Amino acid sequence: MGKKNSGDQSDRIQRGKTARLTDDHEKKNQIRRVKDVEMTLPVVYGTISFWLGKKADEYHSHKWTVYIRGATNEDIGVAIKRVVFQLHPSFNNPTRVVESAPFELTETGWGEFEISITIFFHSDVAEKPQELYHHLKLYPEDEAGPQSIKKPVVVESYDEIVFTEPSEAFYLRARNHPAVVITGTPTGLSLPAPSGATNENFSEKKRGDTKDHLLSQWFLRHSEADELAQLTAARQQVQNHIMKLRRQLNLLETEAIRLKPNSGQ
Ligand code: SLL
Predict the structure, then answer these.
(1) 103-109 and 95-98: which strand pairing?
(2) Does 3 reside within a domain?
(3) pTM score of the predicted model
């Protein structure tokens, strides 16, 4: 049965930095990678669990949700194709596959256990699946008296999925996406002219974000995420400005060619 932990805090933040995703087998497939660039996907994963109070029975004392979300609640479906949550074998069909963002799963149960979260990336990301682990926590550590049905127990971990030398395809597709943080300047890559097919479209089709999530009031704050969000916003402003200048330059160049007297005449 579920155990009651003792300790100081029920809401806990855990930190980690995910190691470089190695990709030996993909190197053989001649994936073109962007040198001197790192793409980072800041994520938060964890569980929020509510005690069911009067509705509780022996096998269903809590209702909980496990999830992995963008650290700033942006849609991480830009990089992640599918997430598999592996539950305790006491659950029916303990392997739960979530095919699109938001990547989450809600269940009822009675006990705490380790959930494995396997992340599969889109094929153009060209990275192997990555596994994270989260310990489902149902019981608050610091409260002696009866639990409240209103205040859940929340445990979240902040992590960064780092794509060092990302694939060119992924870089070009996701470099302006708000869920992604870019560091470095690409070398040896001729960027296509702005087509309008980047930034603007993301905002229209990002329904996998968790900004208006039903549970968002319980999401914890992670200072790293806030800092990265500021950096991303600044970078995007600069990007937009560059795009605008590029368009103007293009127009001017076209106009210059048109006005240039033909050498033969
Ligand atoms: C414990 N080692 O003893 C853990 C195992 C398993 C929890 C916890 C199943 C719910 C259901 C469920 O909650 N299992 O049958 O629908 O605390």
Answers:
(1) unpaired
(2) no
(3) 0.78
Q: Please work out whether the CB of residue 135 comes within 6 Å of at least one atom of ligand 1.
A: no
Total structural domains in the chain?
A: 1
Q: Please choose from 1, 91, 93 the residue to mutate so as to test ligand 1's pocket, defined by most ligand atoms within 8 A of CB.
A: 91
Query: Which tens digits make up the pLDDT trace of 81-131?
Result: 999 999 999 999 999 999 999 999 999 999 999 999 999 999 999 999 999
Residue 5 has pLDDT above 50, yes or no: no
- What does the alpha-carbon distance between residue 194 and residue 191 come to, in Å, rounded to a whole number? 9
Q: Is residue 87 situated within a structural domain?
A: yes
Is residue 176 in some structural domain?
yes
Domain encompassing residue 163: 12-259
CB contact set of 224 (below 8 Å; sequence gap of 6+): 15, 42, 71, 158, 160
90 CA distance to ligand 1 middle (Å): 6
